[in-house]
Amino acid sequence: MKLEFPNIKFNRNEFAGSFGDIGTDFPLIVGMILASGLDVTSVLVMFGSMQILTGLIYGMPMPVQPLKAMAALVIAQKISGNILYGAGLAIGLVMLVLSLTELITYIVKIVPKSVVRGIQFGLGLQLAILALKDYVASDALGGYMLAGVSFLFIILLMNNKKCPPALLVVLSGVLYAMFFKIDFNNLSSAAGFHLPMFHVPSLADIATGFVILALPQLPLSICNSLVATNQMTKDLFPDKPLTVKKIGLTYSLMNVINPFLGGIPVCHGSGGMAGHYFFGARTGGSVIIYGMLYLVIGLFLSQGFGEVIKFFPKPVLGIILMFEGVALMSLIRDVEKNNFMIIFIVGLAAVCLPYGYLAGLCIGILLSKIAKFS
Length: 374
Known about the structure:
It contains 18 helices and two strands. The chain is an all-alpha fold. Strands 1-2 form a two-stranded antiparallel sheet. α7 crosses α11, α11 (203-236) packs antiparallel against α12 (244-257) and α17 (340-352) packs antiparallel against α18 (356-373).
């Protein structure tokens, strides 16, 4: 008897698509580990496990990403790991309440599609700017050359199923690192088996984390992780009906589990799904492959993390991130022309204003109401 899993496939396109979100995830994970002194094994094993979990649950390339607003605050202010874990548990519980009471379903219903596209446009623009400004230009002349080669691979092989471009892009980065960056003696001496560390967040850490990390994160999570991701599943997988309540529940589940085993707070995201899909992913196999990468590194190579991160040069991550941003911005093509102004205003508000995603959401809903009655 042959077992078949139509929503879980492992082939070259799923493998290529598995790297579609690494440009967003990897630098944030590295930044938080270094800023807060987090246990590398715990972070990587739990991040990989959550990828595998969502691949199995959804059967589509549903991404798991670090919470971006939290990550930015942690990296900039070097907030302790204990407070980060408390914040993760706090936002997980908040999302559980929003999902079980179906408040999040109500929010989705009142947000017009043009506003969702504006949020996605703003996020795509933000990712593209970050890629070009901070990633591509990070390794002098060698970095520019590596980025240029990666860009050409993607342009020339776009939509090529026999030779997906992401495979060559990642391979070029690995070869570049092997010849110019990696100290294999340090890497081999650091190999060994390690498991995540158990941790119980205190009430004080949960309360502090809620105030300084979870509250700034909530607007972005509602806009991108729930509203925009729900729309993205309808765009890319219309034959797989999905509710925003289910997305909210898995978001909550991940953040209720992670803090107790040293995992960072995570979410779903429309940008990640766009990235996985753009590079070839069509099933849950892609995020399972991606999760296995983190799981293996966390279990066996976490003590050599300083060498491992060199296998993923920032110029390569930047090119992948740039195309993820472009894929997000291109979604505006299915919106009527008379709504383009709303999209651009919402997108620019998301990029330029404090609490930009919340501001863009409110401004967009207001402009849509005015346009409807004018």
